[in-house]
Task: structure prediction
Amino acid sequence: MPPSETPPASPSGTPDGPSGPRGTRPAGAEPPVRSAAVWAALDPLIHSGPLQVLDVGGGAGVFAVPLAQLGHRVTVVDTSADALATLRRRADLAGVGDLVHGVQGDADQLAAVLADDTLDAPAAGYDLVLVHSVLEVVDDPAATLAGIAAALRPGGRLSVTAANRAGAVLARALGGHPVEARALLGDRDPAPSRSRTRPARRRYSPDELLALVRDAGLQAGEWRGVSVVADLLESTSGADPAALRALELQLASTSPYRDVATGLHLLASRGAGPA
Result:
């Protein structure tokens, strides 16, 4: 996170966790370079005060636990019991177990999941909903996203990431798989033999993702590229992490570089409705 940002104050009477006071990020806990652009986009929201956050498909808490460390209350909905168990261990270890709640359920059945009385979902809706790497695998992305959008409060924000088709084409080509790259270019399954045992993964163009979000009744902001260069580097490249992070942040909103990023990210908002 940028050092100029001031994190929200710890809620009154809330104990500190082992990694530091509530409402602060542990020293040296910079987000991974590949997701730096997502965190940078979220910064103005997550440093404005405690939020009610819903993380759909949030798995093991890669976003949920750091958000809870900043003082936010986070509900994670995921289909995997193993991932939710990891979430619980990670949250407890970070001292934010009381701020993180995991519930097993499907993204495309979110209304039923949130209707559970034991969940204590906010009546007005969530301030921030994360939908990261979910739309690639659900049966009906449009219906799923519409259901997720309904969980936002009026004026609430949605953060969505999805695999970028152009980035996938480039990655397959550079990996020595031109046949798979051409299949992706034509929006076809690059490995149909593997699809017999697991669902094919969707990829999106920026225009397709923007249209999906707008069709869900949300107002979409500018899209960013996620991991423009980080995924192209070998782990032994020796690149300076700080310099690479700065480069990622600059390229994330700059075409033509963002056009071939591994992923796409955008923030959207739900209209406040009539006054």
